[in-house]
Design brief:
With 221 residues, the chain is an alpha+beta fold. The chain has helices at 4-19, 77-86, 99-107, 137-147, 167-190, 198-208; strands spanning 29-34, 39-42, 58-60, 66-68, 92-96, 128-129, 152-155, 159-164.
Length: 221
């Protein structure tokens, strides 16, 4: 099976995403991109993640030409391809409808540096794109334009998109952004959050460069 490992990973992480309640029902989607093959593996449209099989995963290039798979790809395929085109380091994209990130997306407010782990996104603030209809090129364009240097972006009245160098990184970023969003929400319920300064976040970003074991991949902070 073409890109079997990537297909199996999408099935695995789709179940993780649902079990962690980062998305409910058939919402949310996941993809992995192989630049050498020029193909993206993406979850199918409207199939429960606990019933999705590797053969249900659709393979397509970044111009939407299907290379393998009998299923209809996720309605957000263009959101994924746009991120791969605009962020050359990205090898996986995870789109969730997690509760706290979506709460701020409904408010149209960015995630702020209420905790240093927001630096995992590569910036001190995760912006919120204006609302656009799901599954449209307008949504993909709005999200990719406003995210800038960030590897995560909120979608107005919709959810979150996170990308990374592999599926573990992209999924981990989505989890970290949900953690930040919950902290920000809870702090705002009590009072005014103490947001880290730009200088403090510069120091955080510098220290992230040497976090973890030599030659290893960070899995937390």
């Amino acid at each position: 099976m073409l890109m079997q490992e990537e297909r199996e990973l999408i099935v695995e992480y789709g179940k993780k995403m649902s079990a962690a309640r980062l998305s409910t029902g058939t919402s949310g989607n996941i993809s992995i991109y192989d630049p050498e093959k020029g193909l993206m593996a993406i979850s199918p449209s409207g199939i429960d993640y606990f019933f999705t099989r590797p053969e249900d995963i659709v393979l397509m290039d970044l111009e939407a030409r299907v290379a393998d798979g009998a299923r209809k790809p996720s309605s957000e395929w263009e959101l994924h391809t746009t991120f791969y085109k605009r962020k050359p380091h990205a090898r996986s994209v995870v789109h969730t409808h997690s509760m706290f990130c979506t709460t701020f997306a409904v408010l149209g407010q960015p995630l702020q540096a209420v905790h240093y782990v927001i630096g995992d996104a590569g910036t001190a603030e995760v912006p919120c794109a204006p609302y656009r209809t799901f599954g449209t090129p307008e949504l993909a364009e709005a999200a990719s334009e406003i995210c800038g240097d960030s590897d995560a972006v909120l979608l107005g009245n919709h959810g979150l998109v996170a990308c990374g160098r592999d599926i573990k990184s992209a999924y981990g970023l989505a989890c970290n952004m949900e953690y930040i969003a919950e902290l920000q929400y809870r702090a705002m319920c009590v009072g005014i959050p103490n947001v880290l300064t730009a200088g403090q976040m510069v120091e955080v970003m510098e220290r992230f460069q040497t976090y973890g074991q030599p030659g290893g991949k960070k899995s937390g902070y």
